[in-house]
Here is the input.
Amino acid sequence: MPSSQRPESVRDAWDLGRNAIPNLLDELEEHGILVFLLDYDGPSQVDGLCARVDERPVIGLGPGWPGDRQRFTAAHEFGHFILDDRLSSAVDMEDACNRFAGALLVPRTEVIEHLGKERKELEPRELYRLKHKYGLSMAGWLHRAQELDVISDSTYEDLRRQFDRRGWHENEPGDDYPSQEPSLFEELVYRAYSQDIIGESKAAELLGTSSGQFYRRRTMTEE
Ligand SMILES: [Zn+2]
Here is the structure.
């Protein structure tokens, strides 16, 4: 991957250092990416999607996910903006974006610092603590450990089987990492409404609410 497309370069350009990114959605919004929660209530839950609207990158995130999954999805979709059209067709884009997301959330140096260069075993409690420190799921940490050769493929497979047996591939144990609400999208809707660019029903629809509720939110008269 050329250096300008590496997650470390994004961290450098955005002055993020190598530590945890406490509010990833804020960082994306501050750098011109519009993030909003999808108002979706279908049979299967959507993780996220990305698009360009008038050249502006937009990321939609499925509602109701725990924070670690929401962050990973946001980082993955952001990866599409950085990597799409720039990788050879031989590379699996979804894998590349997953790898990009993991590395953006926890750079290599941090993985090595916290886990060491080589491990025979990893403890669930250790992964749980790191999940809450970095906002990357326990399964995400396992992945990072494998792709950086901290653990062997067979250790990774053993640990994944343990996770599956305990149902952790669906719900990880302990507290969830808190999710976040994007803020810029809502600001833009209010601005467009007040400048008569969109009407009340459109604004309400964009915010996933009713016209009455939108009125009370806008005028700050909700109970
Ligand atoms: Zn993707």
The beta strands are 34-37, 48-53, 56-61. The chain is about 50% helix and 5% strand. The mean pLDDT is 91. The longest helix spans residues 67-83.
